Amino acid sequence: MTRFTPAELEAARDRLVPDVVADGLSVLFCGINPGLMTAATGHHFARPGNRFWPVLHLSGFTPRLMKPSEQGELLSYGLGITNVVARATARADELGAEEYREGGRVLALKTEQLRPRWLAVVGVTAYRAAFDDRLAQVGPQERTFGETRVWVLPNPSGLNAHWTAETMAQEFGRLRVRAGLSQ
User: Fold this and answer.
1) Tally of CA atoms within 13 A in the half-sphere of 20 that contains its CB
2) What CATH number has the domain bearing residue 148?
3) Which residue of 63, 114, 134, 170 is surrounded by the most CB atoms within 10 Å?
């Protein structure tokens, strides 16, 4: 993995990272927003401490542990990646309430256009903020976007100490089974 200087990472602030999407995916994973490492590399969930890629594999969504640079291969598994808020920041707490709400509006439109079977938002706090649903918990939601069902997953950030890779993989695995994807 390329090492970036603090100045190079800071230069990635506010950059946009292209979605990895296609029409009719089985699951569209939705992060909070790109971090600076993701923006610098152009690869989702690129920060070394982020557990998204290991958990995706442990839960059976992918047959092997993938690197962020291999994100395009997700499409062959019927999977994709987007974000609630498109712009890159060092930390999610740099995002404001209106930015989350606007991100939720954009995400709803994107979901209705792309028509994945499931939208999986990784981070209950982001989901609550984007859709003004303060009582949401990890798991399937009542909300739908057209025919798309919604599942909230734990945030795979290394800062989320409440969930281990194993417990996250169990929750991701529940979604995989519900989505009808074989292991």
Assistant:
1) 24
2) 3.40.470.10
3) 114
The reported pTM is 0.95
Mean pLDDT, consecutive 10-residue stretches, the chain (183 aa), reads 86 93 98 94 93 96 97 98 95 92 97 98 96 96 96 86 90 96 79
Q: Cβ distance 151 to 140 under 8 Å? A: yes
Three-class HEC string of the chain: CCCCCHHHHHHCCCCECCCECCCCCCEEEEECCCCHHHHHHCCCCCCCCCCHHHHHHHCCCCCCCCCHHHHHHHHHHCEEEEECCCECCCCHHHCCHHHHHHHHHHHHHHHHHHCCCEEEEECHHHHHHHHCCCCCCCEEEEEEECCEEEEEECCCCCCCCCCCHHHHHHHHHHHHHHCCCCC
Provide the domain limits for residue 24: 6-178
